[in-house]
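haha ok so turns out i had the wrong file open the whole time. this is the CORRECT one, sorry everyone. sequence first:
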Amino acid sequence: MKRAIYPGTFDPVTVGHIDIMKRACSMFDEITIAVAKSASKKPMFSHEQRIAMLEAVTKEFPKIKVVGFEGLLVDLSDKLDANIIIRGLRAVSDFEYELQMGYANASLKPSIETIFLMPSLEYGFVSSSVVRSILPFDGKVDHLLHPTVLKMIQAYRK
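then structure:
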């Protein structure tokens, strides 16, 4: 069985993330979306809210399960018996950071492999940071988020 982990803060999960998940489903038997607690990043949404958003949008993908985690990704990979890490790359600026993280993980666990997937062209500019920068101004984000996530965010912000 080919198992992979798609880790991130997903603050919030975007259509770009979902695009990567859909495409990964054609490559792997089981994918764990690992929602990092990431308190140091001071996320806009709580860990529980981010997990709930992901659970809501991945219901249609039987190969996907969602877990929250804190700590080292390599420790989670041991627990899940998954040695493949999926990361999305939108631009060259993403590549440098992701390459460093891939090497760091490999230095901690040599059997771990990191694969990089580019989002579909239409989602190349979409990021959680962009969404978070628009939300405080009640700007239009419906093209950046799954409709269920948009409804959840609207409910969280009331």
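The CA atoms of residues 90 and 124 lie 5 Å apart.
again sry for the mixup
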